[in-house]
Amino acid sequence: MKLNKTYLIIAIILLTTEVLIAIYLKTGFIRHTFGDYLAVILLYSIIKSFIPENHFKIAISVLVIAFIIEFLQLTNYLEMLNLQDNYLAKLILGSTFHISDLIAYTLGIITVLIIEYKIYKLWIT
């Protein structure tokens, strides 16, 4: 397994951005929607840092994970895991279901796939 430094740098930049959003923005579009959009790109970048496999499979896997976590928010899963009072768990895993989050995740993965496709085309031509 070879570390892909480009994806790791992207992941670090995105993580820093997400942390800054979490610290300085408590409400609004950037915090709730754009943050979710970036979250799937961050997760994709972290995985791609370590796994050089098929872009499409990883992107879809990330989207499935994001959807599962979002749908779990329809249950009291944080209470079942005894994490209902854990700020970090609530921040990372979320605690309320929103359809807009599913849309943001989907748009984030579509963005990833478009960028990966364009990069792939550049390497072929």
UniProtKB/TrEMBL annotation:
The keyword Cell division does not apply. InterPro entries: DUF2809. Keywords: Membrane, Transmembrane, Transmembrane helix. The chain crosses the membrane at residues 6-25, 34-52, 58-79, 91-115. This is DUF2809 domain-containing protein. It comes from Flaviramulus multivorans. The lineage of its organism: Bacteria, Pseudomonadati, Bacteroidota, Flavobacteriia, Flavobacteriales.
